[in-house]
Specification:
The protein is α/β, with parallel strands linked by helices and 248 residues long. It has eleven helices and nine strands. The strands form two sheets. Strands 3-2-1-4-5-9-6 form a seven-stranded mixed beta sheet, sandwiched between helices.
């Protein structure tokens, strides 16, 4: 699948499940969301890229004067603007329809693992940010160990075929620096997930569900997702994320 086909498949897939993301506990709250939004306090014009159901853009409106919510999936933009009365725009994260230096704050939360070309995305953010502007970024990260990273990405694609690739924190930091950003802060944190609702949110087919049930009990899953199983039931499940505050 080439990049364009991947983007089309992603847009179609998320269009089918847009409403489920509005009610997702992982997306609508958490210390990660609070930290990301706080990094943009005082912004005049802020943009949330790959806004999903709009939770991050809504958080930005608490302290930013004007907030745009952008997503490549029209149904996501519609969901976000209806739920939170945001300014919405359908846009590709790797080809943003904004002039150079248009914003003084940009966010992207738990979405970049779907982008075919993460470096193009980071470069686009650098382009549309004004000098001194803040890029507040968060995404799921893969382990630095190649075998564990391969397991992680195969597991994620079973649940969601539109999953592109999750990268390690050092890879993201390198791309930020190559794009000319200064890293002000970088933190990693684990976020607890409810396994069944995590699977259900993307509505995988029966075969994928069976394979996921096998994979989640493998030793690698214990290492990557901190899985704990009691009497055949998954009791603990989490993933690791990196949050980066960068300045142009």
């Amino acid at each position: 699948m080439d990049d364009l086909d991947h983007k089309r498949a992603t847009t179609a897939s998320f269009g089918d499940v847009a409403r489920s993301y509005l009610d997702s506990d992982v997306h609508q709250s958490g210390a990660d969301l609070e930290l990301l939004a706080s990094w943009c306090d005082g912004a005049n014009r802020a943009l949330d890229i790959a806004c999903g159901a709009g939770h991050t853009a809504k958080a930005l409106t608490e302290n930013a004067e004007t907030v745009f919510a952008a997503d490549a999936t029209p149904a996501m933009v519609e969901t976000a603007t209806e739920a939170f009365a945001l300014l919405g725009i359908v846009a590709d994260a790797e080809r943003l329809p904004f002039a150079d230096g248009s914003f003084d704050a940009v966010t992207c939360r738990i979405a970049a693992h779907h982008f075919p070309n993460p470096q193009a995305f980071v470069n686009e953010v650098a382009r549309i940010l004004a000098p001194g502007g803040v890029f507040a970024f968060e995404d799921n990260i893969a382990p630095e160990d190649d075998e564990l990273a391969d397991f992680y990405n195969r597991f994620e694609r079973l649940r969601d075929p539109t999953h592109g690739e999750a990268y390690s924190a050092p890879e993201w930091l390198a791309w930020f620096r190559e794009a000319g950003f200064t890293i002000d802060e970088s933190v990693t944190m684990r976020k607890e997930l409810e396994y069944e609702s995590w699977v259900e949110r993307t509505n995988p087919d029966a075969g994928s569900r069976e394979k996921l049930a096998e994979f989640v009990r493998k030793p690698e899953a214990g290492t990557v997702y901190d899985v704990s199983v009691e009497e055949g039931t998954i009791r603990g499940f989490s993933n690791e994320k990196v949050l980066i505050r960068a300045e142009k």
